[in-house]
Structures are given as C-alpha cells and as structure tokens.
Amino acid sequence: MGRSPAGAGGPDEAETRRAVVILTVSDQARRDIDAQIDWLAKRSPASAERALDAILSTFDLLQDFPLLGNETERGWREKKVEFGRDGYVICYVVRPADLFVVRFFHPRQDRGETGVES
Asked: How far is 17 from 89, CA to CA, in rounded Å?
C-alpha cells in the first residue's frame, strides 16, 4: 500500500510533525565533555571525532525519547553513550521546558571527583 501525499487523504501536517524536546547542557556538563574529548584527541583525533559524533547522536535520541535513560535514586536519569569498550554516561533531568544535561563522565572515572554518585 503506497503513501498518499498530504492533502490527498493522507495524514495532515499536525499528525506527522514530531515534537522536539529542547536539550540544555549545563556549563559543568560542557566542561566534562570537553575534558573527555580533549583527553581522547591527544591520543587519537579520529577517535575523538567519532566519540563526539556518538555523544551528539545520543543527544538527538534523547530529544526524541527523553525517558530512555535509567532513572536513578538522585532523581535524574542516566543514558549510556555507546562508544568503544566503556562508552560514556549522560546524567540528565527531564523538566517541563527541556531536557537538562547535568553531568557527563566516563564509566571508569571516579564518580567522587564528578559529584555524581552511582
């Protein structure tokens, strides 16, 4: 069965439009991301580029599915960024106006130094 163009019995524009959640990244999370990418870029610029692509792709995914991450006892959610052996973790809260990224870290990083408890 083929798709009919809008206006010809197909779904109207309001039905096909996707809601986009605004994603806001805290200053601390930006510093966290910059530190991880800078560390990786010193060892492998190509890997740093791929890591940043994976992070941005995960941000896009969270904008479409904000409840995708696992809820934590602290009241925020955590979503793993699939990259390499360990990936990264995005810590965020879903607020009425946006999805707010609180922190970002490598799973093997000591969370005590991030202020993020497991």
From this structure: 30
Q: What is the pTM of this model?
A: 0.76
* Bridge partner list, 79: 90
Q: What is the mean pLDDT of residues 72-100?
A: 93
Strands 99-105 and 88-94: antiparallel
Residue positions counted in the chain: 118
| DSSP secondary structure letters along 66-88 | TT-SEE-TTS-EEEEE--TTT-E
From 16-20, 22-26, 32-36, 39-43, the region with the lowest mean pLDDT: 16-20
Domains of the chain from N-terminus onward: 19-108 (3.30.2310.20)
